[in-house]
Each structure stands twice: as C-alpha cells, then as structure tokens.
Amino acid sequence: MIVYILDFGIARRILNDKDELKTPRATVCFKGTVRFASMACHKNNELGPKDDCESWFYLLLDLIITSGLPWKKIQDRNEVLRVKEECRKDKRDQMFHGVKCKESFGKIMDYIDALHYHDRIDYSYVYDLLKEAAQISGARLEDSYDWEDDNTKSRKRG
C-alpha cells in the first residue's frame, strides 16, 4: 500500500548535514490544525518525530471515535490544550469514548507522552499495540479498503 502525503506546507527538515536531529529552537510559532496539534505545538516548543506521532494518533482517534475528539468543537487554542491535558489525567475516558480497545490506545498515548524531542520512536511497539487494538475491536487488518479495486485486492492477498 502507498500512502500519499498531499501537503508539505508546514513541513521542515529536522536533520542537519550530519543526519542528526537539529538542535531544538527555543520557541516556534504555532503551525497546523489545532485539533491535531501536539501539546508541544500548543506550547510553541520545537516539534520532532514524537510530535508527528502525537498528531497522527489524534487523527486516528478522530477517525475511529464516532463522536470525534473531545475538543473537536472547541475553537480556542488554549482551551483545546487544556482539554488535551485533562484527557491525559482525570478525564481519560473522554479521550477513548466508545472504544473497545481503551487499554491498548492508552498504552500508545502513554508511550508517545513519555517520548522527548531527541528520542527514537519504536514503531514496532506502536504497531504491535495497534494490532492488539484491532484484535480487541474485531477489526480485520487483512481486509481490503473500500477504495481498492479487484486487482489491488488480489495482489494484497497473494
């Protein structure tokens, strides 16, 4: 499967000439969509791979949870940050409302939250938790996507 990224408008290189993560800037401007922005983005901190994962996770939850993210209808950036912080503490159930695999998703969120700017992401760990979540939810990862044609489906299976 190929995933196409359509908009590089807010992308920037994060590696220096030695292929090392750049030294984080002291402050950065907010960029992106408030709903999917990482907490570091809300706080005007430098963004790294950890923040990409956090944004991806919000997007995943927004697609899975019927009612959407708890801050979906909030416009104010500071209020969205406050709700995101609450969902990590005493209002965690709001984050995974109606989801069968709360524990697996909670582990993913805890893992992402424990990461720092310079940390390498263990994508295998995240993927294993996603497989666990799919199994608990009864999702079949080998099923075809709605947009796949018959040729794509047969190549995928065999």
TrEMBL record:
This is Protein kinase domain-containing protein. SUPFAM superfamilies: Protein kinase-like (PK-like). It comes from Steinernema carpocapsae (Entomopathogenic nematode).
